[in-house]
Amino acid sequence: MDSGAIHVQMPVAGEECPAQEAKPVKGKSPVDKTLSGASDLLKLLPTGTVLAFQALAPSFTNHGVCHTANRYLVLALIGACALSCVLLSFTDSLVGRDGKLYYGIATFRSFYPFNFAGAAAERDAMFSDLGRFRLTGLDFVHAVFSAVVFLAVAFSDAGIQSCLFPDAGADVRELLVNLPLGAGFLSSVVFMIFPTTRKSVGYTDMTPHSHSH
């Protein structure tokens, strides 16, 4: 066999497999950046509110092809979900002396469980020191930032942008793309500096309070 022929068929060092040449690494696209920022922010929001928004938004926006009625529906959806985030920030959960889980809402004076039908005396016997669950200024801070986080996630949705800002220029689009990143950073700093012990309804990774606390 001709050794020259064999030499021609052998790949030359440094030039093998030209079709598999490594492609240059590109930065994240605006869509990837938005989705990444929004996914991180979802951890700061009540699960039920987020699922409701994600389920209804495509239909309400007509998949980005909005008419006047769609815009009203979208605004109503965003407003209702933002209000839900605020109200759920004032809720809490705890385990009673009977071992059952109870949910309720905090007030300026005490805490009222939703799923406990007993009288005031029975409630005091079932739960110890409900006054410790009363509203504080920190609850309002977290409520405001929960709404801010939700609005950042909502306005980063492509369908919402096309519906509410159909004629937005490049500057507005860039602002909406980076909005979740800015809101996430600001909210994370606030939640880190001012942590809350409230176990709000609908939030993930929340262990209910025990009656023994």
Automatic annotation (TrEMBL):
Its main location: membrane. The chain crosses the membrane at residues 72-90, 133-155, 175-194. This is DUF679 domain-containing protein. It is a multi-pass membrane protein. It comes from Aegilops tauschii subsp. strangulata (Goatgrass). The lineage of its organism: Eukaryota, Viridiplantae, Streptophyta, Embryophyta, Tracheophyta. Keywords: Membrane, Transmembrane, Transmembrane helix. Belongs to the plant DMP1 protein family. It comes from the Eukaryota. GO terms for biological process: endomembrane system organization. One of its GO terms (cellular component) is membrane. It is found in: Membrane. InterPro entries: DMP.
